Amino acid sequence: MNNIKIGLAGNPNVGKTTLFNQLTGLRQHVGNWPGKTVEKAEGHLNFDNSRIDVIDLPGNYALSAHSIEEIVSRDFIVDEESDVIVNVIDAANLERNLYLTTQMMELGANLVIALNMNKFAKKREYEINVKELSELLGVPVVEIEATDSTSKEELLKVVEKAANNPIDSSKKLVYGAELDEHIKDLENLIEENNQLSDVPSSWTVIKLLENDDIVVEKVKTLPNFIEIFNEVDKVKKHLKNVYNENSEEVIANYRYSFIDGLIKESVVKPDVEKPSFTEKLDKFITNRILGIPIFLVILWVIFQITFTIGVPFQNLIDEGFTLLGEGILAVLGETWLSSLLVDGIIGGVGGVLTFLPVIFLMFLGISILEDSGYLARAAFVMDKVMHKLVGLHGKAFIPMILGFGCGVPAIMATRTMEYERDRLLTMMIVPFMSCTARLPVYALFVAAFFTAYQGEITLSLYILGIIVAIIVAAILKRTTFKGVSTPFVMELPSYKVPSVKGVLIHSWEKGYSFIKKAGTIILLASVVIWALSSLPVGVEYGTQESVIGQIGTTISPILAPLGFGEWQALVSLIFGVVAKELVVGTFSSLFGGAEEGAGIESAIHELFTPLSAYAFMAFVLLYVPCFAAIGAVRQETNSWKWPLAMVAITTITAYIVSFIIYQGGMLIGIG
Amino acid sequence: MEEKKINSIKTLNELKNGEKGTIVSFSDEGDVELKRHLLGMGFVKGSEITLEKVAPLGDPIKLRLKGYSVCLRKNEAENIKVQI
């Protein structure tokens, strides 16, 4: 059997991932590129006696060193042992799509072009002469339709053929006599040493003229690098004199004029372009008056689908595990083993699985928004608000709102954002959005201390969370995330009907990978907390005599300036890290297993004043989100740095805010 | 005549709804990375560009060039000059 390895490359929104799903189906695996936060999707299929491994490269507009995604794609084409690069191109948007193609041709990649969305191009009355296009580019071009499996066979046949007869695609690329001549001279200088031979020297020259940092560093390893840089500077100056533009622009212009030439020869466009369906719909969806209301309605629908439909399933799973726990207790009796199984493992596993429905539904909603093209419009409409308030991209709005439901899907929704900095900053402030799991805590305290103003006090906590998020974002922007602000530049793709298969695969993949990766962390953490609550042997679970109770007793004075320095408060907060709902549960079990109601209420009256109760609720709102959220950040960022940063940021913020509330309140005499 | 010529050159963020122009220059001021990115997306000399829409809150703006739509914040568009 023959092994063929192919990479799928192309601009964002050209149906690359749809083609990937079409080729690999469920034989795919999503992970990360080694050492990167960029997602890597791999899959395989068998065709005609060959096993074809397919790697879905990130969607790029160019192959500069502009973003990690571009570097990942470029390194793949240069370094990895790929046989063929399949360049997916949107037929209705040839010019811009071919810009990336020219850059892969500069690298001499063994290209096959998959011309996608031909139906759409035909609707716009574009006539593409595929044979001519292929001739001019010097690489095979296959018309496909990624949404169904049109020409899948043909594409695979061409790929197989190309794998057996690799070509150097840089042959047909011409940038005009003026530039080509200079490139040739510099090429010779680079080739003097026979190093850097893994890439075409002409590519190295072009990258030097484009001031590409990574290539500049590489060239510095050559013995004659000083001579090379001198020559490059001369050429740059010369180009500046001739074109009155710097060399980067000159090269971009040459690429586009090469493309213009191709298009003139191979494509016939109508004289007057008909307004497309997308343009007509956009008039309505991004309308000055209707734009924001439409966005809010769609957001409300996503929120409802995720939580109104998801929560009953969540409860069902929860009840199932409770029943299982009771069953185990009935069979084994109250031993340490049954306690480990019920409080530790089932509590942990149940805690993980209950997130599955909301994650699946949220991704269903977000995938539909993203694939249909609406998400980009939502970001367009909301960008000013987000940019002004928290210095973030308009796309950050959706994760922030989802955070009011549950932080886990919210953190996972940040991956719709292009720039890593935005993604990380959003993850750091999402936990300040008051999630539904915190509600039982507010309910208990508000009922006990603020009977007359229940609604107002609860609402004030939500608002406090938003204000704190804005302040923390402002601080992070000036410290950790200091530097150039990330640009907004974003393509508004044509609207299309999302593919059911793609959306389902995507949602399932996300839910599953959360359970697999974050699940391990949650389960481990749950068992550790169980052990701390059950040791030393013989103590009653979670009491003051247990390790956790002793820890609570020792360090609880730290919280005294916040108004709740008692060990019970600290222990309940520790349990709250497992899941926020446990704060209430812990109080009830610590006060003699009294069921929620008058029993705990009078007990907490002994520990708290209205002021310290409010400070405590503020602390619960702002401190470490649950293990599930920590696990989600770990999974999304692929490192321990960011989840730990989140723990630190939230804890310090909670401490400071509660301190201000309690001490400030005492000062003005509300205590 | 002289005055008319000056008037017909605007920065991209000054275009009105539906107004069309041709890119004449892209200043080196501002973010280099952003400029690189925009060059790749077709913001090169000679490209025809139309302002399709301003967002409901006045920023960003939606532009059409080379057969597709893209949006930019106004301050990201101000380094690009267009001839009307």
Automatic annotation (TrEMBL), chain A:
<keyword id="KW-0406">Ion transport</keyword>
<feature type="transmembrane region" description="Helical">
    <location>
        <begin position="289"/>
        <end position="309"/>
    </location>
</feature>
<dbReference type="InterPro" id="IPR005225">
    <property type="entry name" value="Small_GTP-bd"/>
</dbReference>
<keyword id="KW-0479">Metal-binding</keyword>
<keyword id="KW-0472">Membrane</keyword>
<feature type="transmembrane region" description="Helical">
    <location>
        <begin position="611"/>
        <end position="630"/>
    </location>
</feature>
<feature type="binding site">
    <location>
        <begin position="35"/>
        <end position="39"/>
    </location>
    <ligand>
        <name>GTP 2</name>
    </ligand>
</feature>
<keyword id="KW-0408">Iron</keyword>
<dbReference type="InterPro" id="IPR041069">
    <property type="entry name" value="FeoB_Cyto"/>
</dbReference>
<dbReference type="Pfam" id="PF17910">
    <property type="entry name" value="FeoB_Cyto"/>
</dbReference>
<dbReference type="GO" id="GO:0005886">
    <property type="term" value="C:plasma membrane"/>
</dbReference>
<dbReference type="Pfam" id="PF07664">
    <property type="entry name" value="FeoB_C"/>
</dbReference>
<keyword id="KW-0997">Cell inner membrane</keyword>
<feature type="binding site">
    <location>
        <begin position="10"/>
        <end position="17"/>
    </location>
    <ligand>
        <name>GTP 1</name>
    </ligand>
</feature>
<dbReference type="Pfam" id="PF07670">
    <property type="entry name" value="Gate"/>
</dbReference>
<feature type="transmembrane region" description="Helical">
    <location>
        <begin position="547"/>
        <end position="564"/>
    </location>
</feature>
<feature type="domain" description="FeoB-type G">
    <location>
        <begin position="3"/>
        <end position="165"/>
    </location>
</feature>
<dbReference type="GO" id="GO:0005525">
    <property type="term" value="F:GTP binding"/>
</dbReference>
<keyword id="KW-0547">Nucleotide-binding</keyword>
<feature type="transmembrane region" description="Helical">
    <location>
        <begin position="642"/>
        <end position="662"/>
    </location>
</feature>
<keyword id="KW-1133">Transmembrane helix</keyword>
<dbReference type="InterPro" id="IPR030389">
    <property type="entry name" value="G_FEOB_dom"/>
</dbReference>
TrEMBL record, chain B:
<feature type="domain" description="Ferrous iron transporter FeoA-like">
    <location>
        <begin position="10"/>
        <end position="84"/>
    </location>
</feature>
<dbReference type="InterPro" id="IPR038157">
    <property type="entry name" value="FeoA_core_dom"/>
</dbReference>
<dbReference type="InterPro" id="IPR052713">
    <property type="entry name" value="FeoA"/>
</dbReference>
<keyword id="KW-0408">Iron</keyword>
<dbReference type="GO" id="GO:0046914">
    <property type="term" value="F:transition metal ion binding"/>
</dbReference>
<dbReference type="InterPro" id="IPR007167">
    <property type="entry name" value="Fe-transptr_FeoA-like"/>
</dbReference>
<protein>
    <recommendedName>
        <fullName>Ferrous iron transporter FeoA-like domain-containing protein</fullName>
    </recommendedName>
</protein>
<dbReference type="Pfam" id="PF04023">
    <property type="entry name" value="FeoA"/>
</dbReference>
<dbReference type="InterPro" id="IPR008988">
    <property type="entry name" value="Transcriptional_repressor_C"/>
</dbReference>
